[in-house]
Amino acid sequence: MCDFFAWDKDCEERKQARRIFNDALVIRFNGLYGTDVADIENWHKLCVALYIEPLPDTIPHCKKKIKTIHVNLVDLVDVSRDAVELFPSLEELREYTIGSGKFFPKRSAYAGGVLKFLLREIL
Prior knowledge:
This protein is mainly alpha-helical. It is built from 7 helices and 2 strands; from the N terminus they run ααααβαβαα. It is 54% helix and 3% strand.
């Protein structure tokens, strides 16, 4: 979109479009995987998306399994993809994210607890 409108990097319209896009990513994540950290169904949806089998029977077990997984959250929200790529390490996730430019917004007024649990330090 930025290329289409020929917006410069410092253009206010570009910054506003980026903020709106980032909010949309977070809202989409929340719609797919939920926000309530006390609801095991939300954790199970995430476990399914991350290929965790069998499904853990408690939230702490879900968190323990998910914590070991490295995934680009933009890709995880893009359900049009056949499969989401999992990375063996944070470093490989970091390289992929920087190379692809697929950064998920770290701070959002819409971010729920499930999303916050998944966020990793990339930069």
